[in-house]
Amino acid sequence: MRILLVEDTPDLAEAIVERLQVDGHAPDWLSHGAQAVEMLSHQTYALVILDLGLPGLDGIQVLQQLRAQRNKTPVLVLTARSGIDDRVEALDLGADDYLIKPVNLRELSARCRALIRRNHGETSSSVQYGKLHFDRSAAKVFIAGVALDLPRRELNVLDLLLSQQGRVLSKSQIADQLCSFVDTEELPSHNAIELYIGRLRKKLADSGVHIKTLRGIGYLLHVDA
Ligand code: CA
Fold first, then answer.
1. Which residues of the chain are modeled with pLDDT < 70?
2. In sequence order, what are the residues at sequence separation of 6 or more whose Cβ sits closer than 8 angstroms to the Cβ of residue 31?
3. What does pTM read for this prediction?
4. What spacing in Å lies between the alpha carbon of 158 and ligand 1's midpoint?
5. 2-119 against 126-223: fold identical
6. How far apart, in whole angstroms, are the C-alpha atoms of residue 26 and residue 120?
């Protein structure tokens, strides 16, 4: 999933970016609040990780502007241990959760999973779709109990389609969510997306999960009742 990290401490930001990449996400990192507001006005993210103490526009102001624009992207706030007032204000302004610094990266991973899942209306990180079982915390997919061999990109495409059930996703939207802006040269082509979808369809053949093509529009995931 594409995640925006807004954090002005480079060491911490690098550690978080690395962790998010290991978890299979495509993180973008910005260190200024104003840049974040600008980016969020035209780019869709599954989650925003927002430090409250930022130069210029601070985290609280970023959150305020985001919610004022009716942007409902889940926001995980990073705060200092002593910042109870900040945390209360952030939660009241529409932050979805907070994490106290120093950040524990395992906890960060778990909270990211929880927020993304909750935003998709799921209550557990282990979900059943037809005969397909998706364990997001272990990044593993099973069909009737048998583990599928899914390379990271295919897994990410499937995760995206499952999380957006009932919505048509274009090839551009899929490509966009697979890559962060730091690796734009790796932005998958439309042909690559077709290839991932083709491979996924074969692997999902007996799962009750179907990826429909809407010609010229995109893909729609359907799960047999
Ligand atoms: Ca800071």
1. 182-185
2. 6, 7, 8, 10, 13, 54, 55
3. 0.84
4. 35
5. no
6. 18
Q: What is the distance in A from the centroid of ligand 1 to the CA of 107?
A: 19
The domain limits of the chain are: 2-119, 126-223
CATH class assigned to 2-119: alpha beta
pLDDT at 82: 82
Question: Measured between alpha carbons, how far is 157 from 1 in angstroms, rounded to an integer?
Answer: 9
Locus of tokens 């209360």 = 88
pLDDT at 184: 53
pLDDT score recorded for residue 7: 98
Residue 217 alpha carbon to ligand 1 centre in Å? 42
pLDDT digits (tens, 9 = 90+) for 143-169: 999 999 999 899 999 999 998 888 999
Burial of 185 (0-12, 13-18, 19+ CB in 10 A): exposed
Using alpha carbons only, what angle is made at residue 14 by residues 77 and 118, rounded to the nearest 5 degrees? 35
| Span from the CA of 93 to the centroid of ligand 1 (angstroms) | 19
How many CB atoms within 10 Å of residue 127? 16
What pLDDT, on the 0 to 100 scale, is given for residue 186?
72
Residue 53 Cα to ligand 1 midpoint, Å, equals 4
Pick the CATH number of 126-223 from 1.10.10.10, 3.30.420.130, 3.40.50.720, 3.90.470.10: 1.10.10.10
214 alpha carbon – ligand 1 mean position (Å): 45
* Tokens representing residue 84 in the block: 């109870």
